[in-house]
């Protein structure tokens, strides 16, 4: 499953939980009295979990952005120049030793 799809699903779950909480708080009589508190706690927990999931996915996406193939051209060129410079130094040192 793609990250965009997971984020959309988490947002939808959070939005639905918020809506249901509002409905229950406005009209508590729509739920059985013995289930009211349990239902409110469940929906609050669902909202919290959906928010945490969105944050976790955002952090994961930021980590993925730093992986190979997703860096800027400037960073890639800098890394290549660094590798070339290191190789030149090692070649010069080998020539000086001989």
Q: What shape does the CA trace take?
A: rod-shaped
Parts with pLDDT < 50 across at least 5 consecutive residues: none
How would a crystallographer describe the biggest sheet?
A: none
Task: State the end-to-end distance.
Answer: 57 Å
What is the gyration radius calculated from CA atoms?
27 Å
Structural class: mainly alpha
Entry keywords:
98 residues, mainly alpha, 2 domains, 3 helices, 84% helix, rod-shaped
Describe the structure.
- The structure is a single chain.
- The chain is mostly helical and 98 residues long.
- Helix content is 84%, strand content 0%.
- It has helices at residues 3-26, 33-65, 73-97.
- Helix 1 (3-26) packs antiparallel against helix 2 (33-65).
- The protein is rod-shaped.
Architecture blueprint of SSEs:
Layout: H1 3-26, H2 33-65, H3 73-97
Helix pairs in contact: 1-2
Task: Give a concise summary.
The chain has 98 residues and is mostly helical. Helix content is 84%, strand content 0%. It has helices at residues 3-26, 33-65, 73-97.
């Amino acid at each position: 499953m793609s990250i965009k799809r997971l984020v959309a699903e988490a947002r939808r779950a959070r939005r639905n939980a918020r809506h249901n909480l509002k409905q229950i708080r406005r009209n508590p009589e729509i739920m059985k009295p013995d289930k009211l508190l349990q239902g409110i706690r469940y929906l609050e927990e669902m909202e919290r979990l959906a928010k945490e999931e969105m944050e976790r996915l955002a952090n994961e996406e930021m980590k993925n952005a730093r992986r190979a193939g997703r860096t800027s051209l400037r960073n890639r060129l800098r890394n290549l120049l660094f590798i070339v410079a290191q190789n030149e130094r090692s070649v010069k040192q080998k020539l000086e030793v001989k």
